[in-house]
Each structure stands twice: as C-alpha cells, then as structure tokens.
Amino acid sequence: MNISVIGSGYVGLVTGAVFSDMGNDVICVDIDESRVRMLQGGECPIYEPRLPEMIAHNRREGRLEFTTSTAFAVRRSEIVFICVGTPPKEDGRTDLSYVEAAAQDIAGALNGPKIIVTKSTVPVGTGDFVRKIIEAHRHDGTPFEVVSNPEFLREGQAIRDTLQPDRIVIGTSSEAAAARLSELYRPIERPILITDMHSAEIIKYASNAFLATKISFINSVANLCERAGADVKAVTKGIGADARIGPAFLEAGLGYGGSCFPKDVDSLMYTSREFGTPFEILKSVAAENDSRVPRFAQRIVERLGTGAPAPLAGRRIAILGLAFKPDTDDMREAKSVEICSRLRQAGASLRTYDPVATEKARPLIGEENVEYCRNAYEAAQGADAAVIVTEWREFIQLNLARLRDAMSQPIIFDGRNIYTPAQVAAAGIEYHSIGRPSVGPRET
Ligand code: NAD
Ligand code: UGA
Q1: Which of 65, 261, 335, 382 has the lowest tally of Cβ within 10 angstroms?
Q2: The pTM is what?
C-alpha cells in the first residue's frame, strides 16, 4: 500500500519504518527541515533501539523516503497517518494546533479517495474536528474517511511494541476503511479491535491513565512501607500474583515522567470536566506523582544536610541517569531535571552521567554547578552520595566496589530500586531506596 506519515517524531518514524519494513511504500513528512535533512542524509534524529537500522534498510530498498512536503506525500498515498505532537497547554487541555495544521495541509492535497488516520493521542471528538477541517479545506467533493488508530508503543522498545502490540484499535464507522486498515495490519497477526471513533479515542487516554494510576498506587504503598518497615518489592510480588491485578507497571520509584503519562492524565481530567463528569481519582494520581521527587530530595537533604538555608552546600552528588526512562534519549518530563534543580537549590554541586541523553539534557539542566561525565565511575568520583534516577541496564551491572572506592562517602540513594539492599550493603555502601528499609554498609 502507499502510505504517508505526517510528523516524523518517535511515533511517526517508528510507524513509517515498520510499515515500510512490511513491504509498503511509505513517505514520512515533517515540518522541521533540519530533521528531514538528517533523515535524508541517513541519520536518525532520536535514540530508539533498532530504528536506525530499520530506516536504513528500507531506504536502501526504496520503500521509505522523507520530505517536508505534505502535499507531495498525500498525493501519492491511499492512507495518511497523522502522527504530529499533541502537547499540553497550561490548563491541562491538549494543544490541537499541530493536528489542525496537518489536517489543513492534507485537505489541500486531496486528489482522490483517502483514509486519514489519527494516530496522535487526541481527546474524544477530535476525529470529528479533523473531518470538519478537511471538509472545509478540500477543493472539491473528493471522498475521504477519518479513522482513529491510537498508538500504544513505549519508547525504548517502540519497534517491538509496534510489531507485537497487545491489540490494534481501529475506530471508525466505515466498514471499508476498517477493512483496509485491518488489511494493512494483517501481517503482524495481532488482535484487532474495531470500535466507533469516540470509543477508540477514549481507549487511548483510559489506558494511559490506568497505567499511571497503577504507578501512583504502588508509590503510595511504598510510602506506607517506608514508615511501617515493610518491603514494597515483597508487597508488589504478593499483590501482582493475583491474576486480576497482575505484576506489570507496579515498579515503585520516582514516579512517571515522559511525554505522555503526565500530559494524558491532565488531558483526560480536563476532558472529563468539560463533559461534566470530573475524574476525581486522577487528581490524586497526579498529586502523588508530583510529590515523588520532593519527597526523595527531602530524604537526601535529611541524610546529608547540615542546616538551612543551603543544607547541601559543599556536597558533591553523582546523578546516574538523566533520560526519563532507559533506552531512550527523551528528556520530556524527565525526573532528573527536577531532582537536579532541587539538589542544586539546596547547595549541592552535581556530577551527572547518562549513556545517551546528555546532549538533550544539557539545555534543560544547565551548566551551573553541574559536570557532565563520561561514565558512572567518573560521575561518582569524590561524591558524597550517588543518586540513581534512571534504571539503565549498565547501572544495574555496575561494579559496586569500584563505585564505592571512587566516592568520598559511599552512600546510594536509589530512586528506581535497581539493587537489593543486601547486595549494596555487602559492597560496603549505605543504601536508601524506595519503599524498603535503608541499610548501612556491612563489612565484607
Ligand atoms: P514528537 O514531538 O517526537 O514528534 C512530532 C513531530 O511532528 C515533530 O517532529 C514535529 O516537527 C512534527 N510536526 C508538527 N506539526 C507538523 C505538521 N503540520 N506537519 C508535519 N510534521 C509536523 O512526538 P511523538 O512523541 O512522536 O508523539 C506524537 C503523538 O503520538 C502525540 O500525540 C503523542 O501523545 C502520541 N504518542 C506518543 C508516544 C511516544 O512514546 N512518544 C506513544 C504513543 C502515542
Ligand atoms: C507510555 C505507555 O506505556 C505506552 O503504552 C504509550 O503508548 C505511551 O506512554 C504514550 O502514550 O506515549 P512511555 O511513556 O514510552 O509509554 O514509557 P513507559 O514505559 O510507560 O514509562 C512511563 C513512565 O512511567 C516512566 O517515567 C517510567 O519510569 C514510569 N514507570 C513505569 C514507573 O514508575 N513504574 C512502572 O512500573 C512503569
């Protein structure tokens, strides 16, 4: 099939790469000229495992190309995916201006029947809005269908998630459009759920909000465990063993970040209020999430601090991990930004390290009282404590004895529970983690 993808970010690039890999002819569009130039020059603008190889392979095979011209792409396509950003506005509602602009560009280029598919995460009713824009801007009565096909991929494992999704949701009242999209997805052999468009739009937000709720729930349990002297890992195992609950997405930590959960929880609250059915439970979900970093920073200040107003003055702290999660360089809503800001405000100087996100982190974290290091041991050099912010695999495999020897004071604050308390204590390091008792160093 001939496909175009409008918006070549995390979702658009992965979607374009996978569809081309399945044998379709795909044109990816972006308004960002430098991004398109990079892609045309064989460079991948984002860090996502397996993506650069898949893009390179399909470009070589002549099935994948990049352009800044929506008109060029749309004219040559039967199916057009809208994958532009839908960032949050100040009040929590979704900024649909990129979707609106993309729909206008698509409308201006219609030269025959098309299926226009919204893959961007958009509030219920946006498909109707897209249809109206296209009706208003097309030159003649060229027929088209609008379909909602929300995306559920996770960054860091986006190719895998796209090839093996738990389900594919196709929201449309058009049997012909549903059949055509089902045909497109058929090779990946995963369950396809066909719904009306409004339900498909709500499925996306309800899924993200439910996952965010699981995270805030287990983080609240972790708070209780810390006070009661229990172990949140044991509790998670106990509740996750109940098939009705399941173990997934119950990792206690610094809370959820990234480009989607925070904005999508806010957007669902906003939409629900607009419809007169306030989604009260999500207020607590967001509030618990907002409290994670202040609470953790406070524990660091209490352990290392010397007194107000700059309790961490003279303290050097290693920050391990800057990206919002492992296997990505995405810094959107990364917890590292707030942690670094709070620790510096308290007077600390920081030595940070991330395997891939350093360059994207610099403009957000700044240069004052921060050094960007080349590895975890360098970051730990002379540090009074090391803070684990992102659970990169290479941190899980660190040589803890070497880390201890690099530090001036061997203390780890683990915001992602990547070690067992016994393992860290055995390496002669004091260990503070989430929802588990703190332990002192043990003689080895
Ligand atoms: P992104 O910011 O990485 O990419 C969006 C791209 O669209 C940018 O490169 C931008 O320049 C481009 N763009 C904006 N307006 C355009 C236009 N009119 N024409 C052509 N290009 C245009 O965003 P993303 O992370 O890929 O997210 C895209 C959408 O998918 C959002 O709605 C998001 O909520 C949703 N989503 C994201 C993920 C994820 O993991 N990132 C997963 C599922 C769903
Ligand atoms: C999330 C969803 O998992 C995807 O299904 C969805 O498509 C995507 O949002 C989206 O709509 O953009 P993503 O943000 O890439 O994907 O990453 P996740 O793995 O879901 O992690 C999100 C945040 O939750 C991270 O900050 C992570 O550290 C945190 N998290 C995750 C926890 O704190 N505990 C957990 O158990 C799981």
Answers
A1: 382
A2: 0.97
